Amino acid sequence: MQPLAYLKKFFLNVIILSQAVYSLAQVSDDRPGQEILKMISSAPDDKGSETGALILLKDVRLTVGEKNLKRLEIHLVGKVYKREAVADYAQIPLRYNSFYEEPVLNFARVIYKDGTIKDVRKDGIQIKNLPEMEGLQFTDTRYLSFALTGLEPGTAFEYKVTITDKMPVIENEWSYTQLFSFYLRMLAPPYKPRTDPCLKSVYTLVLPSSRQFNWKSSLPLPDPEMKSLGKTTEYTWTVTDLPVIQMEYGMPPISRIAPVIYLTSLKDWEQVDRWAAKKFLKKIRVNNEIAFRVQNLVAGKRNDLEKVASIFDYIRKSINYLYTDLERGGYEPHYADEVFRSKYGDCKDQTILLISMLKAANIKAWPALINPFPQDEFPDLPNIDFSHLITYLELDGKPLFLDPTAPYCPFPELTGPDQDRKVFIINGEGGKLLRTPEAKPENNLANFNMEIMFRKGTAIVNFKIDAKGTINEFLKQTFSNTANVSVDDFFKWISRSVSETAVFDTLILSDLSDPQVPFSAHLIFHIDSIWNAEQGAVGLGSHTELFLSLLMNIDTKNYPNKRYNDIVIKYPQIITGREKFILPARDLMCITIPPKDSVVNKWFNFQQGFSHNPTYFTANFSLLLNGNNVDREDYSSYLQSLRTLRQVSGWNVQFIDPLVYIPALTEQENPAHTIAECDKMLAEDPNNVYALMASAMAYYKNNQINEAIKRLKEVLGKEPDNKYAHYFLAQCYTAINNRAVARMNLTSALLTDPEFDAARALKATLYFADKNVKDALDEIEEGLRKNPSSIPCLRTKVFILMLSGKSDEAMNDINLLVAADSSNADLLGSLADLMLDANKINEAISLYSQAIKADNRNPKWYGNLGWAYYLNDDVQKCLEFSTKAVSMNPNLWYAHYNIALSLLRSGNIKEAREKYARLKFRFNEISVSVRQGAINDLKELVKKGIYVKEAKEIISDFF
What is the C-alpha separation between 346 and 7, in angstroms, rounded? Predict the structure, then answer.
């Protein structure tokens, strides 16, 4: 019997029905007949062009003789057309069981277009063990491989194999399974098999005329042609024009695509039970060692279920899985005490030991034959076409199936491949057919949880996966078979899928070795510079597609446009996910909230929903895979549903700080353009509050104040407590000098949110504009009592004090403000301007320097810094920074005059006069106030007695 582990790995988890084409090497020199040569020369090349090869004839003849021993003859003729096919057919591997079968390779040869024949030499033939892909297996299964050397495009090949039974599997009975298509195995990676088109496939059964047999086929076949040969009768089935079978992930068994015939002399399942009871039940035995171990294992257990769990856990932990069938042919286990002592065994051995140990605990159990993967099931056709053995028992009248070879499945669950399968219970009383249970979708569950917390421009990401059922098994097996460094690389890939700039921090993985511990992975990483405070916005995107693709159950991106076979969705399961974004600031406004959406069809049910408040945004989804297979005819609909799923699940959402984002938007864009875009949004959704507010501010920027007020009042009609609409409305009324109504709107905003610092600062500014300094400062102090570090309140307080001539009182608040917002270049520059106006030169120099450090793109700050240095009697610094300013903005005329003045002060009279002379020719570009300022600076020199003559001459000559 083949182990479950072997089946899980075998050919991309797709069960391919085996062909009994086993052989040994013994070559004859028979020549191809004229019929074969004619078949080769007349082969329709177009039929082989798609895959590169064509099977012209597959002729299989099974003769049942004395004691129901079989002789199988396989004659194959094919032709290759492409290089890829030449490489694949260069080695033909034929599988056989050396315990039961004796094969002979009658001949194998390559036939060229000109009739030349190249026979396979004996040194081109070798018996091989199972390929490396099948792991630790010590078995009677062998491959006879022979090399068809000399194959090239356009050549044909032919071989014949005879396989004779050495002994029957069941005494005086026979069974056989035949796939009509030709299936070519591969012994080297990537192990992908091929099944090329076949023009003619013939299967003949030769049976003594007095004997009966039963048969079934996976696909409809006509009744066989019968020919009486005296003592024997021939039954022949012929199938023509078998198409290529494209090997695809998730495809059904080949028997659902190409016909397979099952034949047997067995009349009923009782015969199977009699045979199996001799093989299996006699190996169940309890010795003193086993009895003593069981006594310790069940001590203190409260009921039979706890006893079974303890014994099952012992076998799983103590008995190593090793596929060992040498000299047993795959159908006979070791005695239980042998397995107990050796501490290893395959599925048969572990099942027999489990049943024996349960017997020692007075719990009755039986071996159960099963095929773990989808395969044709004919309850009315008795057979031994099983590949695995598990344990069956009843507790409290309820059936329980156990598989100790499933290392990732928790007790008492049944591993996924064993679910919903036909089983034959071996009880020595005729046996019985049952069906294993199938887990409900909610028991095959994966949950993804991703939480992103924004902190000072950095996002801290917690990513968690939890699973149970078949998904738990899949993930545990995946990561258990991966080196630790690769596991880290995998989760680093996940973090980079969230953001290319992600930095991997921590991975906490559950205990993969303990089947009772569900799979869990907790990944922590961070992303720098994700929140842009200057733009006042953060965009968030869906990661649902990442979650779904991790399980490889439903590919929302890479499905091919064409499908050759049906898709088998074996396990109903549920995938759920949550993405929670804890936002970086209070009261951010959601401007693109995705709609609640769903995709529901006969294959899956996808639901998603969203929720948000001022501090977080959450997206939830659930995907139920129904387990219904996808018919090839429905593939285009299925593919479209996947694309719809991808579109629906690929949401994006944006959160903004309206006080930053909306003004920035209207500054960066042409106001008319912003209004047009917002009008498009409003045409689709008249209730789009964001569009109303953004267009109102665009009208405001375009000096269309009345239209802006109209739009903002529409917002308040929909959302009376929208504090941002009240705030922007106050700005509009301020622009038309209606400060009383502006204050009323600000009062409404503050009633909605007493901590709305921007509204409080604007309200204080309006009091100050009405020369009501006391109420202005009282308003600010109220805000600072609620939030001592409020930047809008501190900034407004500083401006009021400075403009009120109370610069000394403002210094403490200035220091607090600078400490709280040291990277805000605009703030630093504004404070520097106030300091310069208040004649606090050193403070101005310091603040201008900090503003330039935060943002070196503003020429005014260079020019003002130069003038501050001039006032501080540092003429060279004035010259340096003024020159830098005009290099950035040649039209910064006051800086040009500062350069001329500095040249004069430094004694460069000629250069100074030349500079003033050039500026005189630009008078039409220079404002009167700037020219008057330059004259005043020269008069100040005369007043101070510095370069008096030169200063007077410059005033007279150039102004």
Answer: 13
